[in-house]
Amino acid sequence: MRVLLKTKAAVVAVLMASTTMGAAEDVEVLHWWTSGGEAAALNVLKQDLEGQGIGWTDMPVAGGGGEQAMTVLRARVTAGNAPTAVQGLGFDILDWGNQGSLANLNDVAAKEGWDDVVPDALKSFAKVDGKWVSAPVNVHSTNWVWANKAVLDANGIAVPTSWEEFTAALETLKAAGVTPIAHGGQAWQDATVFDAVAMSVLGPDGYKAAFIDLDEETLGSDGMKEAFDRMAVIRANVDDNFSGRDWNLATAMVINGEAGFQMMGDWAKGEFLNADKVPGEDFLCFRFPGTADQVTFNADQFMMFDQGGAVSAEQAALASAILSPSFQSAFNVVKGSVPARTDVSDADFDACGKQGMKDLAAAAASGNLFGSMAHGHAAPASVKNAIYDVVTAHFNGEYDSETAVEELVDAVSIAK
Ligand code: GAL
Does pTM surpass 0.90? Predict the structure, then answer.
């Protein structure tokens, strides 16, 4: 069964359908991996499980960033019908864990030595009160830019390394009649862009102070106003039809040369690969100018929902498959992310993947690795949503940068 949900109204239909889904020995997996690249990666996991004789009941809920999936999840849990395994991010995992909704994976984790190979940054979102409650699949990061190489070459544009070079490139593309930045106007996409822009202006200490420590002074600073000013520049360089566009359709604009750049997490690479494009030849990946040493990360994990007792054999098998080194390589090569274990070879990864692994290790070692605000790894959902509202309202021209800063301070102080 394949259900694509676009609206909250569809939740009811799902609730009804789900009661008839899935034999006892199947795993029912709720996720938002519905784009071409994402689905190709998910197939790696499905096939792995099928090879072990475990059936897969697919529960896809379309919507990048997972907001709609989380709405469906809340409805399912409220109805007493939680799926077996659910894709989750950061603070959402901790919330479900703290509510006691997740099964304890400590037996399989101990048997397989997860504590020794999963980095602390991920463990802090996978363990609650010393119990493993979810299985980390990958590490993505949000401060990337994706570019069409032929478009850049044709316009004499080198990879920009500063905000000034980036804005000069945008001007050149605009003059050439190419959409400078492919963007989808959805709150989570606006926020993904903001992750990188804020990091580039505020620096690592300022990013942490604003989005992780929720420091009022930093949220209300001149630097934050500058970040909003830069968002307005980005807004001036997207096409007229950006509103509501799905992220993968924006990626397609870069793939087919309609646009020069996309600022997006490295799941975008999955779309390029799915279209048979080669990094370095057809497309380029680079860190957003001014964030070369930083990584704003988000890690997809599968939360195992308590089905009324100990973790089931299928849940343990799924968790074990996810953490296996061969799966971590095979899946992340396709997905665009990098492994959630530190002991996986980069041999099978392309140039962007190898860079991603190197950047992650270097950022972790130098104290430059931070949870992505946009993808739920900096602050709880209430704060994240409050920031989303301000970033999107400003992006859509509802108010100027000075007002945006004031709104941000207020919204965060109410939400936290
Ligand atoms: C992120 C998720 C990625 C990718 C992206 C777009 O939140 O971590 O795996 O799916 O959304 O859908």
Answer: yes
